[in-house]
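dumping this here before i forget
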Amino acid sequence: FQAVGRVAGAGTSSHTHSYQFTDASLARYTGGQVYYRLRQVDEDGASTYSAVRPVQVPAEAGLLVQAYPNPSVVATPVTLTIRVDHAGPVALYLTDLLGRAISQQQTDLPTGLSALSLGEANQLASGLYLLWVQQGRQQQVLTLLRQ
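structure:
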């Protein structure tokens, strides 16, 4: 997780307070799921975290990517279905949650729906991974879970 913003609290009160925050960085995502959690810091400096909440970002027309099976077990092949509105190169970047590159590849896809094996996923250890798929200015990020 990385901080996306900060909202000052209203202090100690017997009244209920509502807070709002808009994640400006969300605009760069064109589909997939992002995860949020809140960190509450008390006046004494102690902090607690909320439960993790997924937010589904709708995909724009053009690029749509799905992975199956997801979650998957170690040594099980992962297949991607990728829909593109125009033929051309599609870049795939697989990273761990710290952003360290695991693999990257580029492939030319025809217009429409294509199936693509994510062979590198067969060797992944248990854990969470991010798959960034990009065609031109469109990008989608998938979370892959290996069990």
